[in-house]
Amino acid sequence: MNPSIYCLNGPNLNLLGQREPEIYGRATLDDVAEICRAECDRLGFLLEFRQTNHEGVLIDWVQESRGGAALVINAGGYTHTSVALHDALRTLTIPIIEVHLSNPSAREAFRGTNFVAPAASGSISGFGAFGYHIAIQAAAQLCRRVE
Amino acid sequence: MNPSIYCLNGPNLNLLGQREPEIYGRATLDDVAEICRAECDRLGFLLEFRQTNHEGVLIDWVQESRGGAALVINAGGYTHTSVALHDALRTLTIPIIEVHLSNPSAREAFRGTNFVAPAASGSISGFGAFGYHIAIQAAAQLCRRVE
Amino acid sequence: MNPSIYCLNGPNLNLLGQREPEIYGRATLDDVAEICRAECDRLGFLLEFRQTNHEGVLIDWVQESRGGAALVINAGGYTHTSVALHDALRTLTIPIIEVHLSNPSAREAFRGTNFVAPAASGSISGFGAFGYHIAIQAAAQLCRRVE
Amino acid sequence: MNPSIYCLNGPNLNLLGQREPEIYGRATLDDVAEICRAECDRLGFLLEFRQTNHEGVLIDWVQESRGGAALVINAGGYTHTSVALHDALRTLTIPIIEVHLSNPSAREAFRGTNFVAPAASGSISGFGAFGYHIAIQAAAQLCRRVE
Amino acid sequence: MNPSIYCLNGPNLNLLGQREPEIYGRATLDDVAEICRAECDRLGFLLEFRQTNHEGVLIDWVQESRGGAALVINAGGYTHTSVALHDALRTLTIPIIEVHLSNPSAREAFRGTNFVAPAASGSISGFGAFGYHIAIQAAAQLCRRVE
Amino acid sequence: MNPSIYCLNGPNLNLLGQREPEIYGRATLDDVAEICRAECDRLGFLLEFRQTNHEGVLIDWVQESRGGAALVINAGGYTHTSVALHDALRTLTIPIIEVHLSNPSAREAFRGTNFVAPAASGSISGFGAFGYHIAIQAAAQLCRRVE
Amino acid sequence: MNPSIYCLNGPNLNLLGQREPEIYGRATLDDVAEICRAECDRLGFLLEFRQTNHEGVLIDWVQESRGGAALVINAGGYTHTSVALHDALRTLTIPIIEVHLSNPSAREAFRGTNFVAPAASGSISGFGAFGYHIAIQAAAQLCRRVE
Amino acid sequence: MNPSIYCLNGPNLNLLGQREPEIYGRATLDDVAEICRAECDRLGFLLEFRQTNHEGVLIDWVQESRGGAALVINAGGYTHTSVALHDALRTLTIPIIEVHLSNPSAREAFRGTNFVAPAASGSISGFGAFGYHIAIQAAAQLCRRVE
Amino acid sequence: MNPSIYCLNGPNLNLLGQREPEIYGRATLDDVAEICRAECDRLGFLLEFRQTNHEGVLIDWVQESRGGAALVINAGGYTHTSVALHDALRTLTIPIIEVHLSNPSAREAFRGTNFVAPAASGSISGFGAFGYHIAIQAAAQLCRRVE
Amino acid sequence: MNPSIYCLNGPNLNLLGQREPEIYGRATLDDVAEICRAECDRLGFLLEFRQTNHEGVLIDWVQESRGGAALVINAGGYTHTSVALHDALRTLTIPIIEVHLSNPSAREAFRGTNFVAPAASGSISGFGAFGYHIAIQAAAQLCRRVE
Amino acid sequence: MNPSIYCLNGPNLNLLGQREPEIYGRATLDDVAEICRAECDRLGFLLEFRQTNHEGVLIDWVQESRGGAALVINAGGYTHTSVALHDALRTLTIPIIEVHLSNPSAREAFRGTNFVAPAASGSISGFGAFGYHIAIQAAAQLCRRVE
Amino acid sequence: MNPSIYCLNGPNLNLLGQREPEIYGRATLDDVAEICRAECDRLGFLLEFRQTNHEGVLIDWVQESRGGAALVINAGGYTHTSVALHDALRTLTIPIIEVHLSNPSAREAFRGTNFVAPAASGSISGFGAFGYHIAIQAAAQLCRRVE
Fold this sequence. Notes:
Twelve copies of one chain form a homododecamer. With 147 residues, chain A is α/β, with parallel strands linked by helices. Chain A has a single domain, classed as 3-Layer(aba) Sandwich (Rossmann fold). Helices cover 37% and strands 18% of the residues of chain A. A five-stranded parallel sheet of chain A has the order 2-1-3-4-5, with helices on both faces. In chain A, β3, α4 and β4 form a beta-alpha-beta unit. In chain A, α2 packs parallel to α5 and α3 runs parallel beside α4. Chain A is globular, with a radius of gyration of 14 Å.
């Protein structure tokens, strides 16, 4: 069976496409899932795509992703506040790719604190839904390197 | 049917009246609900009154309140730490009124960080249970202004 | 004779309605006085309503308000800089209600320092002229509680 | 019936023994539970031993522990970020003992913020699983002192 | 009638020429007024030149200057502390030119906070009395641009 | 004629003896004036003793004190905020003695900023009304040293 | 003729592959250029690939890139210090993609200041030479969006 | 001969039992020594128990403890200021256990700086004299682990 | 021969008139040079007017200006970062006038650091191209004062 | 027998009169002792006057002063660094008067931290040797108040 | 052939002997070169001695010095601002000796940031031109140690 | 008789050669004394070489060194904390050379505070025992300059 890439999405990403489209773009979370799935298919991976508003659920899923091949994560607002999520990411040995739809450097100062980035292999931000497309590519690339 | 005002209460507010009454007063959360309901009845609104200790549940409810007329929120300790809640509030277009039972300026320094206020229309603090009374009034007033 | 509620207004509030109406609304200070007077009449209080641009005059008046029943204060820019005003408020034993027309959390960082709030019973901000309406209510409510 | 000591464990502690053993040691959470149970038996207490990745659940349980004799808590990453947990702990009158497996002073700067310690009677850190052993002793000792 | 340029001077500027001449130069405030008047005459403006040690009076005058063509202001020590003055300046729509006799960057750290500059069109500092000469020129220039 | 010692008192000191006596003691400002006058008589100085709530008036008086022999000043809350007062003090060449009734180090953090001390010859704090007694002595002592 | 993508590289990137390979990987700058060229060919763009150790030269080239279709930039150490580079980037209207070989969040604190990111459309970091591959893709994607 | 555990106590601990008993408890330093000796006897260790007010003496003793089996240290006020003590502790290879009678997190901000903890194996605080009891246990436990 | 005023311009000023005209105005650098030349002619000075994007070249030119009569400098982005430029300015004994087209106080926080101002005689900012006009005047005025 | 006032002097005060006389004056420590003795004689107190360069000795003496009537202390450089001294002072119940020869507000920033003042009844600084004269007076005055 | 010691000098050092001699001494850069050459001759090294005002050139030369035996560097103002220079130094494996003519600790606060020191083997400052003499000695000594 | 160079060594330097040799090297303090003595002999100075763990003793010795020709000091951990030592050094008029075996810039942040350097003529760090060799040279050189 093909290995799985987990793509986990945090709080408020379920509203994608409805909420502040001038910042986040018009694609919905289903569109994003579709983009990821297409790219996973092309590269020979299964996709586990999920969203939650709950920090604890996100941590449960991160722990579950240990059985996968790579983790693509957009932790939304928890990116800036969750030490517990940071600790969960630190327990993984698979590649971790951080994605953000918008460019946090161009926003509020409190988005300058980031607990995901120091635990991630790499980060991609500011490219809207297309960022997920290249995040899946990068995940695949890093999996190969690890093997 | 009458429009609804959501009144959402965060962590530890279920203990109201039992916990540190010299700070929070002797009214219980049921008393507070009763005050809100009476005022809503008088002003022609339905009331959706809830409490949770879970940040994720609070975010789910804030998202749900998009279908309501206004949101009155006392986010308790999450006021000072939750960027995710801030982001959820930012997705709303209805009036948002922040309430606190006590006066945060007279307490610990870490209560100086506030992620609800910058997303709210206005704030009311320090008046105990009576603060909910005037918060409902203010919510009603702001709804009319928006119409 | 009925007890008095002092409503003291600080610098630049005399320009209300002319100055940055997108922040402060279109009501003039006379409109605000009218709102306060109506509410005081309804609740059985006299109203002492004043405005000054002078920090020292504001302190003189705060000291004078010791003979009143409650103090509603919008100290304008002195809110963020006046330790002397803070000390004057600390000498009062009557209820003190802080009002702001706009929401300071959504404005410049220097409005994050506040010398009125830690000396006040409670604060109301962001509701424009309507905030005075509920401030008078809260003042009346707190007077009763003290009695 | 014997009084209960609650021993509550926060995020990622379910991975104990698998995750970064050079920091956290090789004992699993079951081993830790066993150590606590043995010590509770010896000292005449029941043990309520639990783990969760969810901040809200941890707060629910802290509130529930009000019926117990003492609380031993290792809040993991929430130690450094949760004002809501701090507020929950503040509502307790039973002794609270904070435990950490590793020594936070020797780790990242963000572990310098601590919302559990100021609400706890005392803290024990750096002794791995053995720290729970002496935490139970300290809990028992403090219960006796309170009686 | 010719339009007026207001030139307002804050605390301690009445002592000009007597106080720390190695910092502020030997010209008196009357000399400065003379320089301004000559330049205003040449450029076809009336001059309203005043000095006060009182923050409130300075704010009164700033409000009054709304009827003028431009404002040249040296707020002295209030430059570094007065949010109320800042708010008064924000209510103007005429050009505002900030003047300082000395160079604040070469002095105490507390002169690094400036509440006049962010509300001013432009600033001139370090040129002693001659700075007023070019401030009047700049005021005249900006008036023409606005017309 | 004997030379004068100016003793200037800032905001809220008119309430001395009525306000927070556990911090400021029970002596009134008249008692303090009496203490100062007795000591001045003994040492051969006239006394100019005044109080104001107005920053601008305090600055006017400081400027006026240039004709005196020494300045004893308790600037109250303006101590912590007034750069303008600092600048006025800097213009003096006579000895300046700062007095505080209470010990600012044992109070709020914002009392850690002090604009009077760096311009003063020396400071006396924490001795209540008796502090004025020794401040007059110190003023007399410093006058003699200057002669 | 095909439009050009500028790929500009800052200080010390000429040493790529020789310097700290455990951080930056083993690919040389020529390898990176090759990766970029291949991807540009595939997507129908010309490539302008350059490296310099000089801040001023980098700024000259950024200005020159205004005639191109997009800018991919790895400013090396100037990322963290150059306001002048920031200003140059702000003058562009074409898409700007920031690339870093390593993950700056996992390195020294002074790499937390970033003057490129706030002026960029998006950022990619931590993927070594492969990051340039996806940066070119993202550049192409953003060009199409702009058209 | 049995190995020795050093128990070193810093400044003002000689006053234990007399000084602020609501913070430090009623046990004297002799009582504490007795507790430690009993526990050492039970576990088969000799005890070297000392107190000094002198930083230099404390450093001399820490250096001497290199010949012992473990070090239990309550450095009192030097905990928060002594880099020299920190360096001395860093030269040891035996286990180091930090003890505090009270909970520093609940006290002044300057007790937030700690030069002992980062050099210690673990820390115990807030349990009064009983903390030494479990510190000896922990010391014994860590000695065994090292062997 | 007439003495020379050096007018040195730093990075990105070559784009003047094309770049963000709402901040910097519509005049080009050639227009600015023309303004300066006219004013120099009128006042009897030669003009040395230059622009560079290179910090090192700017420093070379500042050193060269030691042979001139005065220096007018707009260091652009290097104003906020260049200690080396600061040191070069410190070596001059001729008058130095700092110019900025826009008002830095109304822009990003990182423009609050300024390494030119503390080494300059005076500063002029916020008047667009006209600021150079009065800077040349001020330079001439200061030359005369020095003579 | 008359009660004793302890007058304890910290590091480098033995060099008084030889070291930086423009800051500390020309009186030697023997002169200061003489001043204190004369004033103690006049007021009916014995004097215990000592100096040491050793922090530990200073703490020993502070502990010893518990048997005295009052403590006058000039802790020299330890004022700014010694938490251990602060703790020793906190154990006293007799009046504590802090003295400094010079005015610390007019000196280096690191003299802004003060561990003596928050534990003292009052402070006197800037009056040179005469400061000890009034410190003894204040000590006597406070003793009487306590009786 | 003898191995080379590179001695690289940054901005404004070409003015040595002319600029602020009370800080930097009277020796010119040629004198310094002579001192270095004599010492290199004595110790059997060639000397490559250069100066530039350009950060980029300094980086080019640092890269070139990889072929040498050791690097002695006085980066002048770039010491305090250049991350790019820091990165270049990090690529070297030869000994690096930092020299400064004056003592930066006794100067402006912004000289407290240092990007050369953390990449250097050792530092020498405050000895004027003689510092280069001992820097060459130290370079020679470290070369021998590495061999 | 030949003049003396004092070489004073602070806490933990007695352990040199035994403690963390990868940081401090393998030379013992006796080896260092030997190096210093040889160099002093060669240059015609006596050597006073001492070590202590006591801050007060170090200060006593610094005061004693006033009778010497120069002071070479490695204050160990007291470098970073001792204002009292700083004050003692300030009383000297002989040259003061600071030495450190390792490079403090490459170590913990708290070693960034330095109370010796601002009082020293110059500093040498990072060259291990050889640093003392060149420190003696520099001391001799500075003595000659002073003569």
